[in-house]
Amino acid sequence: MRIAVISDVHGNLVGLDTVLADLQTHPADQIVCLGDMIQGGPQPAEVIARLRALACPVVMGNADAWLLTGRATGAEPTTERQLAVREWQLARLTAEDRGYIERFEPTVEIGLGDGRTLLCFQGSPASFDDIILPTTPEEEFQRLLGPYAPALMCGGHTHLQQICRLGDALFFNPGSAGFAYSHQQPESNFKADPWAEYALLTYEDGRVGLEFRRVPYQAESLVAIYLASGRPYAEEAAQQYRPAVS
């Protein structure tokens, strides 16, 4: 069985379609999305339309829950910019679109065969706000994920491709399909990466294979979409995808 794991599209249909085009040459039996699919970018309704066409399971992410409710659940404060973008995005979603997001699931479990499963979530199985990084202390890592072994596990949220062993199982993060970026850069000159990230998990006769994929797209196309969208702070968002001036 081969599963494509996609996460953190954040309203960027260019990124999502880049992944789907790559899957034409690297086909999967199943697609699953780990949340934060709609909020943030210039194409919220378009991403929903594509997800509906895929008819794949989607996990509820913290950003999409906030888009619906306006209630912040994480530690970071909500900014005026985020509120303005949220209002703009909601104005472009129909009641049916909002109902679709409301049906995103807290976790998704996919049978792999041989009694093994893939447990899918946003932050951790218990909360979409939990953060798991390569630097997360082992005690915290075991607290968040240990009770769910021996399932294979995948989560998003941090926009960082990574893999960690958990006994005979493993946890992996496919990265971000819509808003990839380096964690090692100054906030004063933040740049997003012009590529879409995802992962392909293969399970066959007890053997596990995992491939991280990073597929480039034309940043200029996304910049043009931002600038034509009417989204608040579109110029600032577009600037993240323009080359740094030396």
Radius of gyration: 17 Å
Poorly predicted segments: none
Proportion of residues in extended strands: 15-25%
Please give the share of residues in helix.
Answer: 25-40%
Rounded average pLDDT:
95
Strand order of the largest sheet: 3-4-5-7-6
Overall geometric form: globular
Q: Write the element-wise H/E pattern from the N-terminal end onward.
A: EHEHHHHEEHEEEEEHH
Number of strands: 9
N-to-C span: 47 Å
Number of helices: 8
Helix-strand category: alpha/beta
Largest sheet: 5 strands, mixed
Observed structural traits:
246 residues; alpha/beta; five-stranded mixed β-sheet; four-stranded mixed β-sheet; 8 helices; 9 strands
In short:
This protein has helices at 13-25, 44-54, 62-69, 80-91, 95-102, 138-145, 219-229, 234-239, and strands at residues 2-6, 30-33, 108-113, 116-121, 152-155, 161-166, 169-174, 195-204, 207-216. With 246 residues, it is of the alpha/beta class.
Characterization of the model:
- By secondary structure, this protein is an alpha/beta fold.
- The chain is 31% helix and 23% strand.
- It has eight helices and nine strands.
- It has helices at residues 13-25, 44-54, 62-69, 80-91, 95-102, 138-145, 219-229, 234-239; strands spanning 2-6, 30-33, 108-113, 116-121, 152-155, 161-166, 169-174, 195-204, 207-216.
- The protein has a five-stranded mixed β-sheet with strand order 3-4-5-7-6, with no helix packed on it. A four-stranded mixed β-sheet has the order 2-1-8-9.
- Strand 8 (195-204) and strand 9 form a beta hairpin.
